[in-house]
Write a structure and sequence with these properties.
alpha/beta, globular, binds N-(iminomethyl)-L-glutamic acid, binds zinc ion
Length: 427
């Protein structure tokens, strides 16, 4: 048999614990399988074999890569992004520095609503170009699968435009995109005084979203001045009745009880969780709701408080980490940086961090046991790092350590391959 690609002289190979079912929590989150001095063969986009370098010398292949002792891991997975949007919001930075709160900017018609204006005005092809550029950059950082939320349309036409763009990206871009419908991201100006009418309009969209297979998940921004707990309960319950899995932007700024609601509804994940109560943490552990934590957003919004990651981990909540890439509260495509933030701000161990951005991230987006692992017959999504060990990545922060990125067995990025289109600018 002739393999398509062989990686030899792998210094450390993180296969992750692919035999365990479900997202990792408790002590399991702090366990890593680290194989040393290995080789790996890929055929038809899948992992075919893992063996010693001696064995690999007998294997035949179209192409061989000498990893020269480097670290090889599963491709990183980013389970929370707002990938598709138009415009940019750098002018808000000055306001934030003067102390104007994030929710106040939104109340004044800026923030999310200013991106809504730009996104409504954009052509689908321009949205595609711009998002494709951001996705190129994500891929270059080793992120082979990303979640993408809508939510900058807030009307039928533009929400569908965003979701169709994400679907097209998934079909045409080398990276894989999993879509979430976040039509309930803010109250648009035209419905300022009728949020329930607006939410019902978003519920009406679910049939076409299902028919066109535009999203698997439905999400809502449950926050002061946006949607209340009761509105979120009603909205997400209707989405569940229609067969969607649900997520919730919970307790990001004010502790409203979003984590408790996520537990009550059996949400796949609750996201942000900066202000989550101890009771909310307990309930998430009991109900198996994944905590999707976004330290880059706390950093960028200069929040004095961070999500209580240590408490969540110690109480048995499965934790994942994401960039929250968006033009307002976290404009970065760099999940490696988020890994460093998780170490410094949350005191997560390096092992917990690796499990968070691979195995658990996959479960948070409906790909558990299929992505985020290196196992025989599983899709070959891999990163060869310019590092000899897994501890190095969150340690040396702010730079890109991905050397070669492989998606479905194909090399889709190599260092020195500067495929950065002009569309990467935010404007
Ligand atoms: N908080 C709500 N949504 C995004 C921010 C979106 C924006 O500011 O444009 C978030 O997850 O941080
Ligand atoms: Zn978000």
């Amino acid at each position: 048999m002739k393999y398509d690609l062989i990686l030899e002289n792998i210094g450390q190979l993180l296969t992750m614990d692919y035999e365990k079912e479900g997202p990792l929590c408790g002590k399991d989150m702090n366990e890593l399988i680290v194989l040393e001095n290995k080789a790996l063969a890929i055929a038809d986009g899948r992992i075919a074999l893992i063996g010693s370098n001696e064995e690999a010398s007998e294997w035949k292949a179209e192409k061989r890569i000498d990893c020269e002792g480097r670290l090889v891991t599963p491709g990183l997975i980013d389970p929370h992004t707002h990938l598709v949007f138009a415009g940019s919001r750098e002018h808000e930075m000055g306001l934030k520095q003067q102390g104007v709160p994030y929710l106040e900017i939104l109340k004044q018609g800026g923030g999310i609503l200013s991106t809504v204006k730009a996104t409504r005005a954009a052509d689908e092809s321009d949205l595609f170009e711009k998002a494709s550029g951001h996705l190129d950059r994500m891929l270059s950082y080793g992120m082979t699968t990303v979640e993408a939320k809508s939510g900058y349309g807030l009307n039928a036409e533009t929400e569908l435009k965003q979701l169709r763009t994400a679907k097209k990206l998934n079909a045409e871009h080398a990276a894989e995109v999993v879509s979430t419908f976040l039509g309930a991201h803010a109250i648009p100006a035209e419905h300022k005084h009728q949020p329930d009418v607006f939410l019902e309009e978003m519920v009406q969209l679910l049939d076409v979203i299902e028919k066109e297979e535009l999203a698997q998940f439905v999400d809502i921004f449950c926050e002061t001045g946006v949607f209340t707990i009761e509105q979120s309960r009603v909205f997400l319950s209707k989405a569940k009745q229609k067969g969607f899995k649900v997520k919730i932007h919970a307790d990001e700024i004010d502790p409203l009880g979003g984590a408790e609601l996520a537990s009550e509804l059996g949400a796949v994940s609750a996201e942000h969780l900066v202000g989550t109560s101890d009771e909310g943490i307990k309930q998430m552990a009991e109900k198996g709701v994944i905590a999707c934590l976004l330290p880059g957003t706390s950093f960028y919004l200069s929040k004095p408080d961070h999500a209580k990651a240590r408490k969540m981990l110690d109480e048995g909540v499965a934790v994942t980490l994401a960039t929250d890439f968006n033009p307002g509260s976290c404009p970065t495509e760099n999940l490696q940086l988020i890994m460093a933030f998780a170490a410094v701000m949350y005191k997560m161990t390096t092992k917990e961090i690796w499990n968070a951005v691979t195995v658990n991230a996959a479960y948070a987006i409906g790909l558990g046991g299929i992505r985020g692992i290196i196992a025989p017959m599983k899709q070959a999504d891999l990163v060869i790092w310019d590092a000899g060990n897994y501890e190095y990545i969150p340690y040396h922060f702010g730079v890109n350590h991905a050397r070669t990125v492989i998606k479905k067995g194909d090399i889709v990025f190599e260092k020195g391959d500067h495929r950065e289109p002009s569309s990467l600018s935010f404007s």
